[in-house]
Amino acid sequence: MEAKKMKCAVLGGDIRQIRLCRLLAEEGWQVEAFGLGREELGPGVVHCDSLGEALRDACWAVLPMPAQKEGRLNAPLAEEDIWLEPMLDSVVEEAPACLLLAGLPDPALCRMAAERGLKLRDYGAEEALTRRNAAITAEAAIGLALEKREQTILGANCLIVGYGRIGQALAWRLRALGAKVAVSARKPEDLELARCAGLEAIETEHIGQILPRQELVYNTVPSLVLDREKLALLSPHTLTIDLASKPGGADFLQRRKQSYLVFV
Predict the structure, then answer these.
(1) Fewer Cβ close by (within 10 Å): the C or N end of the chain?
(2) What pTM value is reported for the model?
(3) Helical H segments across 123-240, by residue range
(4) Which is nearest to 33 in space by CA: 22, 120, 85, 74?
């Protein structure tokens, strides 16, 4: 069967899913979307009034990244909640052979799909995608700092909490802009990797030693690392940007008098 005759469904999501709809249509796919509100999706993309209509005879369906939010499909543009279990039941009814492509599905979603005999693939686990996403996130994070800070990044003391993909992508970009970059990590191998890259490296449990001199702090760890005691060590002028998945890693609510910014 030719690709242009095959149907794919795009379910929920945000502006990224809208862009995806347009790209797929340009490639000749039959694209039907549900859960994107009444946004303009572009030529060749059909706005469906029901989930079943979007799924009917679809070869594959794309869910957002992250795919879910508290038992519902992650669909901030949708006019009403799209609950995961009824959605999966619709897949079984309308397109049982459909391949579900989901970004970072949680264990509950994976279990529900498996119970129904549905094929689900986590595209968020693809190394090429995660590396590219890390680079884009780092670029946006630097742009955010340039926008919110009155000072330049050149010569600034910057701390990156966590040295995974995003931390690594961010570190060398900040250093290329002339920042003095420190990295914190828990794993000895990550600390050594940072040192080999010419960065200051410190164990995360000891970051209190260097927090007072930081002008810009990025958190990439999705657990509470920057608690109220740690945040109290920062200068009132320090900008803190949280790049971690919700609930993030900084106790922002405890420091209302300081200028913290959460980047989601």
Answers:
(1) N
(2) 0.76
(3) 127-148, 165-176, 188-196, 228-231
(4) 22
Decide if 59 contacts 7 (C-beta within 8 A). Answer: yes
Quick one: pLDDT at residue 32? 96
Q: Residue 201: which H helix or E strand, with range?
A: strand 200-203
Nearest residue to 10 (alpha-carbon basis) of 40, 27, 33, 28: 33
- Positions of the chain with pLDDT under 70: 1-5, 246-248, 252-264
CA distance 157 to 230: 17
Structure tokens given for 253: 């609510």
Q: Let me know: does 46 contact 33? Beta carbons within 8 Å.
A: yes
| Measured distance CA(195)–CA(160) in Å, rounded | 13
Of 172, 167, 177, 169, nearest in space to 217 by CA: 167
In sign, the C-alpha dihedral spanning 14, 250, 135, 72 is negative
The pLDDT tens digits for 62-74 are: 999 999 999 999 9
The set of long-range contacts for 205-213, using a CB threshold of 8 Å and a minimum separation of 24, is 207/159, 207/161, 208/233, 210/159, 210/182, 211/159, 213/157
pLDDT tens profile 60-117: 999 999 999 999 999 999 999 999 999 999 999 999 999 999 999 999 999 999 999 9
